[in-house]
Amino acid sequence: xxxxxxxLLTWIGANPKSAYLVVFSAALAESxxxxxxxxxxxxxxxxxxxxxxxxxxxxWPTAGAAVLGAVLGDGxxxxxxxxxxxxxxxxxxxxxYPRQLERGIAFxxxxxxxxxxxxxxxxxxxxxxPLVAGMMQMRPSRFIVAxxxxxxxxxxxxxxxxxxxxxxxxxxxxxxxxxxxxLLILIGFIWLVxxxxxxxxxxxxxxxxxxxxxxxxxANLHPVLGRTAQALADPDHPDAATLAALAVALIGASAVLxxxxxxxxxxxxxxxxxxxxxxxxxxxxxxxxxxxxxxLSRLGEPAVTVPxxxxxxxxxxxxxxxxxxxxxxxxxxxxxxxxxxxxxxVRVPRPEIGLGLGWPWSFPSAQVLTATVLYGFLALxxxxxxxxxxxxxxxxxxxxxxxxxxxxxxxxxxxxxxDLVGTIALGLAWIAALGLAFHCHTRQPREDAxxxxxxxIVATLAVTTATFAQQHxxxxxxxxxxxxxxxxxxxxxxxxxxxxxxxxxxLWRRDxxxxxxxxxxxxxxxxxxxxxxxxxxxxxxSWTNAIKxxxxxxxxxxxxxxxxxxxxxxxxxxxxxxxxxxRRLVLRLWGAHCWIGGSVPLWVGDVTELFKDNVxxxxxxxxxxxxxxxxxxxxxxxxxxxxxxDVEPGTPMLLAPKGSRLLEG
Length: 665
Known about the structure:
The chain is of the alpha+beta class. It is built from 23 helices and eleven strands. It folds into three domains: 2-173, no CATH class; 239-476; 485-657, no CATH class. 59% of the residues lie in helices and 9% in strands. Strands 1, 2, 3, 6, 7, 8, 9, 10 and 11 form a nine-stranded mixed sheet that branches. Strands 4-5 form a two-stranded antiparallel sheet.
């Protein structure tokens, strides 16, 4: 993937005109009537903004292409509406989707000429508004003014989020390429999951009644097996869309569960897909990503779920929804019973990566099963209290949360992929069956957003509180155990092959950044020696000083240093030296998990040079140049001048405190 991205960026940098043509075409298509409803123009502009931040294409040519495409697209739509008028109502595809056209007409009738400007940013079906303006015979001069003015603002405004995101990715890639890749995967996956949840809900709704009737007809033909369906489904119930969706979910979840269980019998550790996903998750580890994923996993843990359960119980009791309260208890009792029972029956061991977790079984995942049942049933309950047009939203939110918890568990390496899929299927099967009965045997509540707001507020407070209270202990709990090696000093001194990293560990295990330095001894001793030669401890990038990155006028030596990552850990020693010519050198050292002579820790690292990258004079990013011999020579000279560190030139350069005798022999 990394090579593919590099090749794509290189090609775009060499062919910027092609990128401008794509932006122009996307803006044109996104602004055309009807066509704009299916063309992902916004996503293409977002990607173009990221390319601007990467320095592959220019801002003004890209913005100009977007504005020109938007002006022409809206102009063509206006001409079609002005030329053909109401006859367009009977033309495909507007005759298939009359609601979109009616909403556009209502929007234009309410705001008049201003709707052309407003509709470009908001409003129902922005690609429909220019067409409606033409159909309503808006004066061409007024339309041209509104079209040009709104397009001039629209182009840069839609590029801006991509520019910010691209700068963020650039900064993340400075720390570790794996962090940038993880952010791309996570954001893309969550967006896809939310989009699929909404589309599935909207797809099932029109066919709901027919499917429910078919289910009940099948129940009548099979009186023995059909009793369950008759008990769950009521043909007179008004919320047929939800009933049909739950029935489909039950059937699909049962099928997936059967496949997953078959995989468990074969042994999850033997499946190639399981091992691949475990390796991928472990290869993406960085300290920042660890904290983020532990926070997501916490959405399915007792620190968050218990306060949320209690709050919902109190709300239902206060509103005298006794039957809903009983269904809520039934939903929550399932993971409490299923997790230990299936765990001991199936007995699937967790991946062996040295995590200090008490429960030894991987299937079912307690966190994922709890999240599926808890947030799934909350989505059922909240959706009933909303207007029909918004009922998809709780389902999309629950799907995103379940996907986030599952992704976090996969990243942390706590369960196998097939176990997580089987757990979700198990939870969906229970929610589908329980939800059918819940909708049929409880009365439809009035429209009330109370339950939704209680869920949001309590979950947010619980996650925040648990993060502050448990983050340190959770980081230790989910960190794989480390194995330390012991090495004789003579072997290290002779540069014999040793079990120590010689290069920075990156995403695909490629040797991109070699370690030119090995130091055996306490870090404080080396720090003191370098302090005497003009080196100083670096100011590391944090939330408190990140605002400096928004000041492009600051010199390089005033910017914070981005922490780098090797093997999932930040550099443990980071020192900088600002040279008289404005250049800045950075020394970074990581623990090698190795003892020299049985008691002296070994550290590995390199010396690199920083440069300031200005992104459109909006952001100043301190980025790293490839390592050069100049940095190593400077470090060697300074340490020899300090006279407190023994230096053994070569590759790698060996360092040890003077008097330790580690380099003597």
